[in-house]
Design a protein that fits this description.
This protein is an all-alpha fold and 347 residues long. Helices cover 76% and strands 2% of the residues. The chain has two domains: 77-150, no CATH class; 155-166 and 173-347, no CATH class. This is DUF2157 domain-containing protein.
């Protein structure tokens, strides 16, 4: 919103034109639709009835057209969530009285009904797909608890994401894609944790594991950007970017504050820098903001370690950290605003 306002302020400044005949410079001020209506009404001498008719035809009082689709999606998501939550509460209240077969039957029936309903009713496809996605996760979790398969948690999330992919692909809605992105990102994080020794160790031996995880997060972001309908519905891609930034920057910070600075810190900083360059070329304000904040945080944290090790904690070191943080943040915001306004993209 702030970027849009700033770009609008630059573009809506008074324009200067030169007439062909006299060479006189004229300044044209932007005029709002409300002001144009008042001027037209006064110029034409319209009475109150005709003025109201003109205002109605102009559509100035009509609600924004994009509000209704968002309202319908929000209502559908709320309905699906309440239905799913109600079923969970009912099953939890009667869980001890239900046999194993009936428990599986209830979960499978809810999954089948929501999937069939999503296929049969296009208007309810997105919320019903969300309900089916959540039910599938509950079914897999109950299966793992009942039969004690010994599978790692990351395998459960990987299987959940794989089985739900055709469902969310058919739904073609951020209402289903965004939760699926969370499931996939959780699976990647759990995989890194498992193959890193079932703990978050930041050493040279775990660098390959974390590097593969970083690549997986990058592929997730690319996949969300290239999915069908991604331009019109960017929220699942934004969720993927946000989760990737949190995971990679968190891993880099863990490497920084190890006993000795681990390779994860420069690796994570380099990955964030590459992402920042790509987002800069695309002038994507959301990714630019998230990546710039992550890079600034990593740089300030690195400076903090140097200050603590060299000068301990004193007023001079704290002042240096504060000035560095303010300078980096101000420079990042200024550069992002200039890039976005120069490209004509509104956030």
């Amino acid at each position: 919103m702030g970027n849009s306002f700033a770009c609008w302020s630059v573009s809506s400044a008074p324009t200067t034109t030169t007439t062909a005949g006299s060479g006189r410079i004229l300044r044209e001020e932007p005029v709002s639709l409300h002001e144009q209506l008042y001027q037209w009404t006064a110029r034409q001498g319209l009475d109150a009835t005709r003025a109201r008719r003109l205002r109605a035809l102009s559509g100035v009082d009509d609600p924004p057209a994009e509000v209704w689709p968002a309202l319908r999606r929000g209502t559908g998501a709320l309905a699906a969530g309440l239905i799913g939550f109600g079923v969970i509460l009912w099953v939890a209240a009667n869980w001890d009285e239900l046999g194993r077969g009936l428990r599986f039957g209830l979960l499978e029936a809810l999954l089948a009904v929501s999937a069939i309903g999503a296929a049969a009713r296009p208007a309810w496809r997105a919320p019903l797909s969300l309900l089916a996605l959540l039910t599938l996760g509950g079914l897999l979790a109950y299966f793992g608890q009942t039969y004690q398969t010994g599978a790692d948690p990351w395998q459960l999330f990987a299987l959940w994401a794989a089985l739900a992919l055709p469902l969310v692909w058919a739904a073609r809605s951020d209402l289903a894609w965004a939760p699926w992105t969370v499931v996939a990102a959780t699976g990647i994080s759990l995989w890194m944790h498992t193959f890193g020794g079932h703990a978050w160790h930041f050493t040279a031996t775990t660098v390959p594991v974390h590097a593969i995880g970083f690549v997986a997060f990058g592929l997730l972001c690319v996949g969300m950007a290239l999915r069908p309908g991604g331009d019109a519905q960017p929220w699942s891609w934004r969720v993927a970017v946000l989760l990737a930034v949190i995971a990679i920057s968190g891993t880099a910070l863990g490497g920084l504050f190890s006993r000795d600075v681990a390779p994860q810190y420069p690796l994570g900083l380099g990955v964030m820098a590459v992402g920042l360059v790509l987002a800069w070329r695309r002038a994507e304000v959301y990714a630019l903001s998230a990546l710039a904040l992550a890079v600034d945080t990593l740089l300030v944290a690195g400076l903090a370690r140097v200050v603590i090790e060299q000068w301990k904690v004193d007023i001079g070191g704290l002042l240096l950290l504060g000035l560095a943080a303010c300078g980096l943040l101000a420079a990042s915001v200024s550069l992002i605003m200039r890039r976005v306004c120069a490209s004509g993209v509104h956030a």
